[in-house]
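Next comes this protein:
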Amino acid sequence: MKIMLIRDLDEKHINRLKKAHSDIEAHKALLLKNQKEEIKSAETVMGFNSDFSSELLDILPKAPKLKWIQSLSAGVDNILTNRNVKKLKERGIVISTAKGIHKYAITEHVMAYILTFSRNLHIFREQQNKKIWKRLELNSLENKNLVVLGLGIVGLEIAKRAKSFNMNVSGIKRNWKVDIKEVDKIYPPYKMNEAFRNAHFIVVTVPLTKETKHMIGKAQFSSMSKEAVFINIGRGETVVEEDLIESLENKEIAGAALDVFTEEPLDANSPLYGMKNVLITPHIAGLFPERINKAIKIANKNIKRYKDNRPLINLVNYDTGY
């Protein structure tokens, strides 16, 4: 079984794959010219979502032996939004992910955002830089309303942590007729604006799909209260960025904490940079030291399942996009 690696992984990670499976060959192919050659005999392609260039995705449907793509990321939007995805589906090429490995890191990042706004830590930092000693009015998270858009692995973990701060937690979920102990109320997507109405914090965790692209725009921001803080750690294109900026400029909402953007890196001329009520991080909410080790652990499990002809972990549904 030959695996084409399109990420420059350390040898220790590659050796873990080989040690667990003595019958596999793992070859790095980082340049397109090498990928065009290696893909001729590869059964599996492994790399992060961002590693799948449009040029590589052009040749994958033509790869004669390709049967499986393993993303070492949670997302696959870079793959599934490509014009060749239909050809991959027709070929019966399966796609799996490393979904779930980032849930604690992302949840901690979200809670850091929430605590920063609740306790005005970003303002105190500015005061510290200016050597200003001034007390401010502060909030508590007790009985504050949190809405989580997307109750997947990450969304559920955020809900659980929020509950430990005695917050009221609502969720928005496509399959909404379920009971989840960490969530006080679940809304269907068509009642999104109603769910947002009394929220103090709104967290977007959904992946980018045809259904979620630009799902948050002017109507949704208008439905939020002036106390609301909008948080996005999902994908930038789920939001109409111009509408978010307009809402912030007009003080229709209290603030925003953003880890993802429509275009990354965020353009230096974006007005978001200059807003005192906006926190920006450069798409790093899911980073933590052991992330690659955990991704390789999932890949190892999936290699065994693949060879045993069993269903893969975190198998992607082409139709839903995740």
Remarks:
- The radius of gyration is 21 Å.
- The chain is about 35% helix and 15% strand.
